[in-house]
Amino acid sequence: MNAKEKFKNLLNPGSTLNQRVTRGGVWVFGIRIVRECLRLVRVIFLARLLAPDDFGTLGIALLTISALEHFSQTGFNAALIQKEGDAKAHLNAAWTINGLRGTILCLLLVAAAPYVASFFNEPAAENIVRVVAFTVFIQGWANIGRVYFDKELEFNKKFAYEVGGAVTDLTVAIFMALILRNVWALVFGLLAGEIVRFILSYVLHPYRPRLSRDLTKARELFSFGKWILASSLLLFFINEGDDFFLGKVLGVTALGFYQMAYKISNLPATQITQVISQVTFPAYSKLQGNLPKLREAYLKVLKLTAFMSFPLAAGIAVLAPEFTRLFLTEKWMPMVPAIQLLAILGLSRSVSATTGPLFQGMGRPDIASKLQLVRLIVMASLIYPFTTLWDIEGTALAVVVGALAVDPVAIYLAARVTQSKIKAITPILGLPLLNAAIVFSATYVVKTYVFDSVGVPAFLFLAVFGASIYFAVVYILARWMRYDIVSLIKEQLRVLKGTPSLEKIEKTG
Fold first, then answer.
1. Is the pTM of this model over 0.90?
2. pLDDT class for 89, splitting at 50, 70, 90?
3. What is the pLDDT of residue 386?
4. Sign of the CA dihedral 245, 131, 328, 52?
5. Max CA-CA distance within the chain?
6. Which helix (H) or strand (E) segment is 374 a member of?
């Protein structure tokens, strides 16, 4: 099979669920890799042109939008994906509610802008909140047909949708930063990206929504979506509460440092998390009536996730000082300890992210909501004393402790609902953790005792060295401890190519 035939094969979602999940995973990873490469270029370039408080000022606007969005979350998109069978009868009702919600939120944000600026004691935030509010309006009226990108695992279309917006955001932000040298460059990039996504939602999917007054369909979706709303509210306080608190207590500059530290430390975890959610949620929904296959799928996802996330977290933690100094300049160095702490959060998030789509796919989103409530209570009880004692590092520590108090419980409950044995899960997580510890230690020793100073060539050497150590240990574990990650990856590559024997196995299995 030549390269052209392979690409055509990849464009076809596949005839079996295993193929659709695997090929969908490739496209979603492609989305994340391209988007995050673009974001990394954006961060490195704009961090040199703009100051930490510019990022903090935009962060205030995004926090305000996030608050209203979470408090009015319908959960309709998730309900449409989870719904067995065709969901077309519910699309117009969902689109109408989403559009009205976006319009109301936009108006509320415009009205609330002066109060937001006063709360954070940042006058520049007022007009920024008003302009950024328009993105909520745009998102609300985007084509509801795009849920089929997820529901039917047609992620090649989602690739064009997401990457188109990301390229536009990057291009406009950098161009405007060269001209303006202030926070408005970030605002114009964000707005341009959302406009392009809105246009692409109608270009890439043929469905044309119409206004609907059918409240019965909306109520049916909300019966599932209410738990998504509850989860959304809790996630807002978990994911954004630390930003609100820190921005109010320590100011906009500290907020800029903290948000940048969070983005860098959780960059791989965020992408792994979103890939897992987008690909496995619809897949688990289709497997909810077949427990053995659901359990097998979950354990495979958990193994692949741990294999990817553990070394990335170790690499970020050990190379954070060098990365910050070389690529973001000395003015960002105060955030390095927070990056290293939050790398632990990134690792925990990526692993626990395997459980949320599972609970939703099985029709039990209430489990995730209850766990998030416990996490919020732990974090809220620690954030004030920790921040008072240790500034942004204290905020980061409170967030990390909250995650570590709950995420292991989520894995345990996932094992219970899939009837998986704990002894099967222990090596899946334990062996990559051991390997990551070896990588961290070896890389730290080399950078400390071999190099007097770390420039770009030395940084790249250390990154390659750490990766080499990790894969060498994987080989040893596969050979001596039956850590069969290599065979699992090969299996998924065969499925990706559409090997006939695997098609037969899946249809008869």
1. no
2. low
3. 94
4. negative
5. 69
6. helix 365-417
Name the band, by pLDDT with cuts 50, 70 and 90, for residue 222: low
pLDDT of 436 > 50? The answer is yes
> If you write DSSP's letter for every residue of 246-314 in order, what string do you get?
HHHHH-HHHHHHHHHHHHHHTHHHHHHHHHHHHHHHHHHHHHTT-HHHHHHHHHHHHHHHHHHHHHHHH
In whole angstroms, what is the distance from residue 10 CA to residue 430 CA? 34
Band of the pLDDT at 229, cuts 50, 70, 90? low
Encoding tokens for residue 268? 């791989």
pLDDT in tens, 271-288: 665 555 555 545 565 565
Smallest CA-to-CA distance from 357 within 302, 270, 277, 269 is with 277
The dihedral built from the CA positions of residue 396, 314, 436 and 235, taken in this order, carries a sign that is positive
The whole-number pLDDT of residue 443 equals: 94
Element (H, E) at 48: helix 17-49
Cβ pair 351, 303 in contact under 8 A: no
Q: How far is 25 from 87, CA to CA, in rounded Å?
A: 23
Indicate the helix (H) or strand (E) that contains 457: helix 456-480
Write out the two tokens for 362: 């099985």
Check if the beta carbon of residue 318 is closer than 8 Å to that of residue 441.
no
Q: What is the mean pLDDT of the chain?
A: 77
Do 257 and 332 form a contact (C-beta atoms < 8 A)? yes
Q: How many CB atoms neighbour CB 137 within 10 A?
A: 19
Q: How confident is the model at residue 508 (pLDDT cuts 50, 70, 90)?
A: very low
| pLDDT of residue 251 exceeding 90 | no
SS3 string of 178-230? HHHCCCHHHHHHHHHHHHHHHHHHHHHCCCCCCCCCCHHHHHHHHHHHHHHHH
Strand, helix or coil at 140?
A: helix
CA 61 to chain centre: 20
Residues in the chain: 509
Per-residue confidence (pLDDT) for residue 228, from 0 to 100: 59
Element (H, E) at 502: helix 500-508
Residue 5 CB neighbour total at 10 angstroms: 9
Helix, strand, coil proportions of the chain in percent (round to 5)? 85, 0, 15
Residues 6+ apart with CB under 8 A from 458: 322, 447, 451
